[in-house]
Amino acid sequence: MNPSRFYLTLCIMLTAMFVNACKTIPTTTSQLEQARNSYVAAQNDPNVATYARTELKEADEAFNRANAAAINHESTDEIDNLAYVAERKIELTQEVGKQKAAEAQVAGAAKERDEILLALRTKEADQAKQSAALSQETANAAQIETQQEQIRSAQLAAELANLAAKKTERGMVVTLGDVLFGTGKAELNPKGMNTAQKLADVLKKNPERTVLIEGHTDNRGSPAHNRELSERRAAAVRDALVSMGIDANRVTIHGYGADSPVAPNNTAENRQLNRRVEIILSDENGKIS
Amino acid sequence: MIQHSLIKRIPCCVALLFLFSGCANLEAPATAAVAVGKAAVDSATAAGGSQFAPTEMQLASNELSGANQALAVKDYERAQVLANKAQVDANLAQGKANSAKAQAAANALQDNIRIMREELNRTTQ
Question: Would an 8 Å CB–CB cutoff place B110 in contact with chain A?
């Protein structure tokens, strides 16, 4: 065979094959289909476009090679192999997209965390300052309270001294002697009213305190009479205090008759000592022990 | 005439040469591809591929050993193909491991922020 004719024939055959190939649809395989589906998914993934451009370019190239092999009707094995590689590269773009998106989130979150941390610290510092100021105020108030308390008790002590009060186990006791009452009577004389007025003033200035008024007599006369007289004298003091503006609820009375003498009833002086009204002042809580 | 036919035979000779040299040259790229595939598998293993993407890791490792076997029997074409597959599977495994780790870090930080925000709101009240 003439060599030039051989080449001509070969050319015609190749052209015919080429044209034929162009006319038919490209070969496809399930592997290639899978790669196509992954490609669509990756293209619809915003993270891929934002964060995985380089990987997407490589995946594009691999995908194009697989598609070209399909168009050129290369062997199914060849197409599958290229499609496999392309599919993995496409999947990788989505993983890289996910990774970068998460990293961006971390970067943003770190900033957010720092802001919250700062807000927390500021809040804590403010609260510490506030509580320091508050405790200072409390301390000041307590100090003022103590000072006022001291002043009040000093005043009370002075006023009670004025009333010749005695400090006893039961509290401060003011004794109104027999001479402040009319003889054998239950009415206070002007001097007694004067003492009662001083007592009323003390009670007005110390509204938390209450008084117990106890009446006593000597042992002359019947016990019943003595008891009644002692009670009436105590009541007379109460009535005097109430008339001076003291609430009756703050005053308790009791008549003991001759049961609680302060001295033996053997002389006129001692008997006079026993005829008395004792006024016991409560503590600042209104209690009398 | 003899010279003329010789000239005409040159393309044939070149083609033959290409064919032979092509066969001989397949060994080098296949060996290189296997090395690249192994490096990819090693890198993915270091990144925790077995933990986060066990399927891809297993595939890559099988493909790599297949590629090495093909290399041993001088099937360079098959070695090349398997090495390429091992490489892309390993890369994917590494990508999955990295994204899983990044996502875990992001979630942990979000949790942290949520707790701190609650703390902030609590102390504000």
Answer: yes
- On whether both A38 and A144 belong to a single domain, the answer is yes
For chain B, percent of residues with pLDDT exceeding 70: 78
Region A168-187: what's the mean pLDDT? Answer: 78
Q: Are residues A136 and A177 in the same domain?
A: no
List the domain range (segments joined by +) for residue A242. Answer: 163-281
Q: Are residues A46 and A113 in the same domain?
A: yes
A109 to B109: CB separation less than 8 angstroms, yes or no: yes
Q: Distance between terminal CA atoms of chain A?
A: 147
Using left for φ > 0, alpha for ψ between -120 and 50, and beta otherwise, residue A184 falls in: left
* Same structural domain, A178 and A271: yes
* CA A52 – CA B98 distance, rounded (Å): 14
Indicate whether this complex's ipTM tops 0.90.
Answer: no
Closest Cα in chain B to A84: B85
This prediction's pTM:
0.53
The band of B1, judged by pLDDT with boundaries at 50, 70 and 90, is: very low
DSSP string, B3-40: HHHHHHHHHHHHHHHHHHHHHHHTHHHHHHHHHHHHHH
Q: Does B125 touch chain A (CB under 8 A)?
A: no
Cβ distance of B109 and A123 shorter than 8 Å: no
Chain B residues whose beta carbon lies within 8 Å of the beta carbon of residue A95 = 92, 95-96, 98-99
CATH of the domain at A273: 3.30.1330.60
